[in-house]
Amino acid sequence: MKATRTPVLTERILCHPESPEPESIARAAALLRRGELVAFPTETVYGLGALAFDAEAVAKVFSAKGRPSNNPLIVHIAGRDWLEWVAVAIPPVAHRLVETFFPGPLTLILHKHERIPPVVTAGGATVGVRWPAHPVAQALIRAVGAPLAAPSANRFTEVSPTTADHVLKSLDGRIAAVLDGGPCPVGIESAVLDVTTTPPTLWRAGILSQAELEAVAGQPFQRPQPGAVVASPGQFPRHYAPRAHVELVPSGDVPNIEHRLARWLAQGQRPAALVISEITPPAGARRLRLPAQPEAYAHRLYAALHELDAQGVEVIVIEQVPADPAWDGLRDRLHRAAGKP
């Protein structure tokens, strides 16, 4: 289904991140119930919400983002008992994971309920379901009284937004409103785990490690098989990408980072380095140093990429993150930002 789009005035609705004001939530919920699009904060990134049961509203999401129709959306709920609204034949492993990790930065792929429109799932028989932990997201979904289909609130393949300003930079004039609840605490998208397969399939790593999830599931996971039907968002080779060209350099290779910065400067480019290690950039090159802990790094990563884009940086030399499994989700995001999944 193709939706036509006309420019709108995007409203910024301020909302306290921990104690959401009822009037702010009510305003955003009213827009969503009318079939409009509203961006809202989750603990991971800002989502672009539409009524999950309304095919026309969901079609607007694809139009606003420029998102291809074969890229499924995640449905956001506001309680364990909501699972039965959107999914059927829920396996025991899903219930174990829900009990431990919901609400939180985990999406489970389940067999979809017939009331979920095909546009949400890219025509597939499964649906990604998440219960976000952010107080604003929870209050909004409860106020709407229905699940929300909500990918990240940005144009397709761009860096996901972790503030309302990031949302407006990408979607101002394309959506009805953004519910501004401040910065997102996690900073990268949820892990996506398909529990309709045996063994479960980890489509996308997140801030929750594979080892943490496997310990609760009671079994090891597989990665997507070649030729498998794509059941998860975030699978395109280039994704989470800034406007600047991205180069990846091995972790700890300081001389290589400094050499590349100097080379790009000599070619008349405006380069920057995004690093964990201490480096001495050549004059004229920018440097942003991120924390050496995965949770703190994730919180800063997308904001740093947005900042460098806003400064007109043309090339970003990024030091790869450590090989430890705790960094798997961040390694995935960096590889896709560079177009190297």
From TrEMBL:
Q: Which UniProt keywords apply?
A: ATP-binding, Cytoplasm, Nucleotide-binding, Nucleotidyltransferase, Transferase, tRNA processing
Catalytic activity, per the record? L-threonine + hydrogencarbonate + ATP = L-threonylcarbamoyladenylate + diphosphate + H2O
Main localization (coarse): cytoplasm
* Keyword Cytoplasm included in the entry's annotation: yes
Pfam family for this entry, one = Sua5_yciO_yrdC
Would I find Membrane among this entry's keywords?
A: no
Top-level taxon in the UniProt lineage: Bacteria
The EC number on file is: 2.7.7.87
Which positions carry the signal peptide feature in this UniProt record?
A: none
InterPro entries named among the record's database cross-references: DHBP_synth_RibB-like_a/b_dom, Sua5-like_dom, Sua5/YwlC_C, Sua5_C, T(6)A37_SUA5, TC-AMP_synthase_SUA5
List the subcellular locations. Answer: Cytoplasm
The YrdC-like domain extends over: 22-208
Q: What does this protein do?
A: Required for the formation of a threonylcarbamoyl group on adenosine at position 37 (t(6)A37) in tRNAs that read codons beginning with adenine.
Family under the similarity heading: Belongs to the SUA5 family.
Q: Which PANTHER family match?
A: SUA5 (PTHR17490), THREONYLCARBAMOYL-AMP SYNTHASE (PTHR17490:SF16)
Q: What name has this protein been given in UniProt?
A: Threonylcarbamoyl-AMP synthase
User: Which organism is this protein's natural source?
Assistant: Chloracidobacterium sp. N
